[in-house]
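As the next step, I selected for study a record pairing a protein sequence with its backbone structure tokens, which the following lines show:
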Amino acid sequence: PDVMMSGFAGKAEEIVSMFDSFTIEQQNHVLRELLGRCKPFQLKMLLSEWKPLMAFDFVECLSKDLTERIFLWLDERSLCHVACCSNLWRKRANSDVLWKAMCARKGWLKFGSNKCLFQPVATTQSLSPTRTSQPFLQFTTAVSLSPATCHWKNVYMRAHQLDRNWNEGQYTVLPLLRGHTKRVSALDCDGVYIVSGSSDNSVRIWDLETHECSHVLENHTDEVTCIRIKVGLIVSGSADGVIRVFNASTGRLFGELKGHLSSVDCLAFDGNTIVSGSADSSVRVWNVHTGQCNYVMRAHTDEVKCIQIIGSLAVSGSWDATLRVWDIRTGICRHTLVGHTEAVYCCQFDEERVVSGSADASICIWDTMSGEMKHTLTGHQAEIVRRVVVCSLATQLPSCCLSYEIIKTYASIQKKYKHWHQVLSAIQFGFDCFWIC
């Protein structure tokens, strides 16, 4: 047997040597002839030998940027599956570039700077949970991952859970915030504080963690009509015609912005610039740091009732039934949006569209860049559409009206939020403020 094996080894070595001396075409011909003579179990053995040799990890061969471009084609669930393949694939899938894009698809970029989303909520007072309430999401830290989960993936996970809790009715009702002696006329929240303005001429600052009123600001001499909070600053407008700026943590008055000749009925604030609308029919642009009025923009012929700001653009709506698109860098009116037949009470916009609600019970959608009207939405039965909110890109458009119906949702992708109706059905008439987080 040893002699036979040595003879086979010599022949096998000779065959391999001859194969090496062939050209590529000759080698291919020999392989086809050999494969044609193999038994099925031999082909199976060859397949098991070749399979690992043919495996190719493209992620290992491509740069991080190219891998991210490929992974951007995946949906969120598929990207999570990718992260389970190997350590390298998890590192490439654990990217702020990818998960920020996922958050953008859902309209969750606003949660990126929301510190409250990442902190457990203290329950220092007795709360009233809903029937199926599981109020606080617990993320396990028992397993240490390296690298740690990136910021925007954390944002996505928590925003996804928050969204699911709202849809399924899993939320907790915090204690009532009592303190104002008259109607609450303005409201805003930054995730740390709720700020409220009232017909009792005061502004109150409420701590979301303790549910207590931390400051009562009584600087206004008439009803507080509008209020905004951002980057630790509170900006409030009043029927006394003055805009006041406060420190949210201390309640200290920073300054008073005077110039309007009548009630300040609406304002927008991006952290640096204040844009205000007044019953004197004017829109003013202010620098919050210097208190200087940069522009006085006069185009409306009646009271300005709503205003919004994004970047260098502002949109205002008025009792004159029009909206105006302004460039706040130059003070120039870019477009006049004509279509409503009654006063415009609310508006929202982004880079693509402007959405407005009116006393004519309709909602109009306009192109932001061209000023062209795209759609008119009808359905409200009462006279006045009070609030309209664009929830996310091209999907949800809730609006509320001064009537028993309270809310309608116009959607290109139908999705029912049954618990919205549970929450809102208790509100019968004439609420002045609400927002959607």
